[in-house]
Amino acid sequence: MLYARLYTGTLMNQFVLNLFDATHEQRITGVTSFIGEDSSGCFGVQPNHARFMTILVFGLARFRLGTEDWQYLALPGAVVYFNKNELTISTRHFLIDTDLERISTLLEQQLITEEENLRSTRESLHRMEQAMLKRMLTLKRKTVWQS
């Protein structure tokens, strides 16, 4: 688990959250706290945290602006990098919402869609393999017949 560590001599109590996905980017200033989960478990980032990098698992992260309510960030995994009071998150797609139930539903729908796409891709690959094997057998028979 990672803990917030302060740089000596720095008085800032906010950081910037940069979000990047395949189609857009978003810069959020005034972030006071971020909580995410990687393969080792949950971790938190506060202003002036030491530089680090990790991979978020599929699911929900959350962040807070000042003393406002938590905002939830749904993503299908991501690369996270914190340096010089900027937290950068790169992912295929992300959703932000203040309503935990609504974003949880959206995340569940996204997971189902990704699973269906993966199943479809696997089926397509299987059909391609079968067609290729059939074609190779046909070519082998022609070669044996001609010799």
Give a written overview of the molecule.
It is built from one helix and seven strands, in the order βββββββα. The chain is elongated and about 80 Å long. The N terminus is likely disordered. The relative contact order is 0.15. Strand 4 and strand 5 form a beta hairpin. It has a five-stranded mixed beta barrel. The protein has two domains: 98 residues, ATP Synthase, domain 1; 49 residues. It is an alpha+beta fold and 147 residues long. 32% of the residues lie in helices and 41% in strands.
In short:
The chain has 147 residues and is an alpha+beta fold. It has 1 helix and 7 strands.
Question: How big a fraction of the residues is strand?
Answer: 35-45%
Rg calc: 23 Å
Secondary-structure element order, N to C:
EEEEEEEH
Assigned CATH architecture of the largest domain: Sandwich
- Name the average pLDDT: 88
In the predicted model, the low-confidence regions spanning at least 5 consecutive residues are 1-11
Present the secondary structure layout.
Elements: E1 15-20, E2 25-38, E3 41-45, E4 52-65, E5 71-83, E6 86-90, E7 95-97, H1 100-146
Parallel strand pairs: 1-6
Antiparallel strand pairs: 1-2, 2-3, 2-4, 4-5, 5-6, 5-7
Feature tags:
single chain; 147 residues; alpha+beta; ATP Synthase, domain 1; 2 domains; five-stranded mixed beta barrel; 1 helix; disordered N terminus
